[in-house]
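Q: I'm building a small set of examples for a reading group on sequence design. Run inverse folding on the following structure and report the sequence directly after it, with nothing in between.
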């Protein structure tokens, strides 16, 4: 079982400033501080988002959480970063500055997947872009240091969390140092920060200095050497290419279909035992401890740190980068994770194990804080799109055990699902009815990172505490995973019975491989909680990219669609699934994209919005993109490289193929099909063709531009005979890889 902390989230003695009570909004100006009777702030939070006092905005959650502990908390939202003056607007904080880029990494917020500058920002008033700097955490931290050099600076939020060790940075196309070095910060808190931040705040308030806070879980800091009392292990001794050293386990009755592999360990050397974990998690054996209680069992991960390859090594050696990524993703379970140490020059970054998850009562406490649920009055009538989108939605849980390689939820929130009680969620519905202006009776979403993981957890507490599988549902659903959706179904039914509620929609992504395990859930969803369209994310149709995404095959999608269509029909409703797909994901070839486009055309899908793969920091897929090495399985010198769409032209091609119906994309698609010898089969007029042949008007335009078609030829090879459909060619054909040769 996951151990519990010694002090609960709301069990600390309140700070003396509790006497000031609760602020209607956390102050953003000296005038507001004066109205509250404050002479100073104990903690000042600096954020790249507009301040919206709503539990979907990280700064509001953290600010209200600290306020509940008795601290006076001020907010500096979207300051002008060109000087230190805006960072001095609330005066000098008594304890520390808390810095975050906001709800998104600032680089993802500012740039598209093609590295083009965005001119909008959903987290800013009136959707105005340019209200935050690039790499906002670095800039804000440096300005706070300039303003008050003796005040500790603590980093948090998703940008800091996903850059806590050396990481590949897509925008500069290089490996960057841990963000704590460039920010010159005193401490970094990763993941959902409530538990470690509350501990840090109380300890600093008691007189401890930031440099002495080396034992707080969920934190990272700079050190010159490993902490005393800890035993170090070199990462290459426990995870040689493709293999990992077993650790003691409290359960050994596992089967290959559950959380552990039964592969026999190989002996690579006399003193190192290694086990093949290319498919599943680490097999762990401890027969010596079968009769001991969990508390008394030996836990070899305690007081043990893993030394990762240094920043200099992972910067210059892609194999070591892939190796470091494998180790990092194996050390995320708060029940058994070891500390990590990575050297940067003559100093190192030390990562303590992740913070323990919040229990149900703590989750209820966090979401039950006195949020105003609207933007701060300073914004007047300005619209903040991110708020408008979520103002009537409710987070019912945190975390995700899906482990999709392109997603950073696991690296930030963890695999353990942290759920709220039914009553807490129903109380929030009442809060929305009372506080949200113009509420129409429609709850736009009851969800979270995934709609249908509410109260789903590992059925074996001992397995949950030690499992190192990156996903509980891939390649198959773990035998220990609870798939009973009854708590979710009951919640939906109670929510829609609340007086004044007309409709409760589910807008979060549905994990359909879990949903089909419980047909009653699909029935409930289709009958009552879909507004005509349900968005789901198969992401691709081909096995190559799906295996690198760690997503289920299309057979699972087909089964869910069959169930969804059936229950929609029974309910007398005409409803549709809207699938999401990713182009240019690592592991995807041009042939994979063509087959996906053929599937889309066969099912008459014309996608308007297409997401090109975005290499976000620390994600497994980003490691695949950068190294072209399959870090999801064994890493060997002889390992085949992962196909990766790099360079603007190939990435544009993959995106264009997904939007095969757009005439603007036809020239680049025709050129690609011609080069692959598929012009006769896929270019022409008729339902069996992917794109039409070039028209005289297009040829004329190309001629005036200096060439006759996208390939520079007067006609594409074999193109003349494709103007008419041949008998028997009325259906689209899926091509095998051999046919592309």
């Amino acid at each position: 079982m996951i151990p519990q902390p010694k002090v609960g989230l709301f069990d600390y003695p309140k700070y003396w400033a509790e006497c000031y009570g609760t602020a209607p909004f956390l102050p953003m100006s000296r005038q507001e501080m004066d109205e509250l009777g404050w002479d100073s702030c104990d903690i000042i939070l600096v954020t790249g988002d507009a301040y919206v006092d709503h539990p979907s905005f990280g700064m509001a959650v953290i600010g209200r959480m600290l306020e509940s502990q008795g601290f006076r908390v001020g907010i500096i939202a979207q300051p002008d970063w060109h000087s230190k003056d805006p960072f001095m607007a609330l005066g000098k904080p008594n304890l520390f500055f808390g810095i975050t880029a906001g709800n998104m990494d600032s680089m993802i917020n500012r740039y598209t997947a093609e590295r083009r500058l965005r001119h909008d920002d959903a987290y800013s008033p009136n959707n105005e872009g340019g209200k935050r700097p690039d790499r906002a955490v670095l800039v804000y931290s440096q300005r706070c240091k300039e303003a008050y050099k003796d005040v500790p600076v603590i980093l948090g939020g998703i940008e800091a969390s996903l850059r806590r060790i050396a990481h590949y940075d897509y925008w500069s196309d290089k490996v960057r140092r841990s963000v704590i070095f460039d920010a010159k910060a005193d401490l970094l808190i990763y993941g959902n920060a409530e538990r470690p931040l509350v501990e840090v705040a109380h300890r600093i308030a008691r007189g401890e200095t930031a440099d002495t806070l080396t034992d707080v879980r969920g934190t990272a800091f700079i050190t010159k050497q490993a902490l005393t009392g800890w035993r170090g292990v070199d990462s290459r001794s426990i995870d040689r290419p493709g293999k990992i050293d077993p650790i003691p386990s409290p359960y050994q009755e596992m089967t290959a279909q559950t959380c552990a592999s039964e592969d026999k360990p190989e002996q690579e050397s006399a003193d190192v035992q290694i086990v093949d974990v290319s498919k599943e998690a680490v097999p762990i054996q401890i027969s010596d401890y079968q009769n001991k209680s969990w508390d008394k069992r030996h836990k070899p991960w305690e007081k043990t740190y893993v030394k990762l390859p240094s920043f200099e090594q992972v910067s210059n050696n892609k194999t070591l980068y892939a190796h470091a990524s494998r180790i990092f993703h194996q050390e995320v379970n708060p029940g058994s994770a070891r500390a990590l140490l990575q050297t940067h020059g003559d100093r190192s970054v030390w990562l303590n194990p992740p913070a323990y998850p919040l229990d149900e009562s703590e989750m209820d406490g966090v979401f039950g804080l006195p949020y105003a649920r609207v933007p701060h009055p300073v914004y007047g009538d300005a619209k903040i799109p991110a708020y408008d989108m979520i103002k009537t939605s409710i987070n019912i849980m945190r975390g995700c055990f899906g482990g999709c390689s392109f997603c950073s939820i696991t690296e930030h929130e963890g695999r353990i699902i942290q759920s709220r009680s039914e009553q807490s969620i129903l109380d929030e519905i009442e809060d929305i009815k009372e506080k949200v202006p113009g509420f129409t009776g429609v709850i736009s979403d009851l969800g979270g990172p995934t709609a249908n993981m509410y109260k789903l957890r590992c059925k074996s507490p001992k397995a949950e505490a030690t499992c190192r599988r990156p996903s509980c549902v891939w390649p198959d659903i773990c035998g220990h995973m609870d798939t009973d959706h009854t708590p979710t179904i009951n919640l939906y039914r109670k929510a829609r019975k609340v007086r004044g509620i007309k409709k409760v929609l589910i807008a979060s992504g549905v994990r359909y491989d879990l949903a089909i395990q419980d047909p009653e859930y699909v029935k409930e969803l289709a009958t009552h909680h879909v507004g005509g369209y349900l968005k789901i994310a198969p992401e691709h149709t081909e096995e190559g990219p799906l295996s690198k995404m760690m997503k289920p095959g299309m057979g699972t999608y087909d089964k869910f669609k069959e169930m969804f269509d059936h229950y929609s029909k029974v309910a007398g409703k005409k409803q549709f699934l809207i699938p999401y797909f990713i182009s240019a994901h690592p592991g995807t070839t041009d042939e994979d994209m063509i087959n996906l486009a053929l599937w889309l055309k066969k099912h008459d899908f014309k996608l308007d919005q297409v997401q090109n793969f975005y290499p976000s920091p620390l994600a497994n897929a980003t490691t695949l993109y950068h190294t072209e090495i399959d870090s999801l399985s064994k890493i060997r010198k002889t390992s085949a490289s992962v196909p990766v769409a790099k360079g603007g032209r190939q990435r544009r091609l993959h995106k264009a193929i997904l939007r095969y119906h757009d005439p603007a994309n036809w020239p680049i698609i025709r050129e690609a099909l011609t080069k692959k010898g598929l012009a006769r089969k896929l270019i022409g007029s008729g339902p069996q063709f992917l794109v039409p042949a070039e028209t005289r008007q297009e040829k004329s335009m190309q001629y005036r531009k200096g060439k006759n078609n996208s390939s520079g030829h007067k006609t594409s090879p074999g193109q003349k005979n494709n103007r008419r459909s041949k008998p028997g060619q009325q259906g689209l054909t899926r091509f095998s890889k051999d046919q592309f040769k």
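Confidence is low (pLDDT under 50) at residues 242-291, 708-730.
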